[in-house]
Amino acid sequence: MRAAIEALTELAGAKTPRGRAGLLRDREHVQDAVARAEGLLGAAQTYRAAAIGDVWETVAAGGETTLQRHARCRLAASLAVDSARQAMDLMYRAGGTTSSQRTHPLARRWRDLEVVGQAASVMPEWYALAGRAFLGLEPGPRLT
Questions:
Q1: What is the pLDDT of residues 88-137, one digit of tens each?
Q2: What is the C-alpha separation between 54 and 29, in angstroms, rounded?
Q3: For position 143, what pLDDT does the model report?
Q4: 101 by DSSP, 3-state: which?
Q5: Residue 17 CB partners (closer than 8 Å, separation 6+)
Q6: CA-to-CA distance for 66 and 23, rounded, in angstroms?
Q7: CA geometry: angle 114, 116, 120, nearest 5 deg
Q8: Which superfamily does 2-134 belong to?
């Protein structure tokens, strides 16, 4: 996702939208999109690092992981991909029609992210399974 933000930043510093004065980076909606993408990416990375760090520290101290910790790791993975998709959507839209050019870096990053998002390990069903674990319900064999 970092590459998509960088691709949009590069594009925004060089592109003057058709029929407009000034660069794409001067437009408020582009500035807003970049800030939101940064926030989404940073929040997801922080949550993922915290979930993994908790498991690591527990195991390193000789403890055992719990279903709750396992659920948080699965949730962190799914949330990271969903957040990246949201951020990618912001970058793609901010790039305008240039984003849809097959060879443009934004188009390539969008396709790459869609492939990652299809992986079974980050499918949306992990939200409900994690929620079941957090509520003290049996999440089923996929999470245990």
A1: 999 999 999 999 999 999 999 999 999 998 898 888 899 999 999 999 99
A2: 37
A3: 83
A4: coil
A5: 24, 27, 96
A6: 52
A7: 115
A8: Butyryl-CoA Dehydrogenase, subunit A, domain 3 (1.20.140.10)
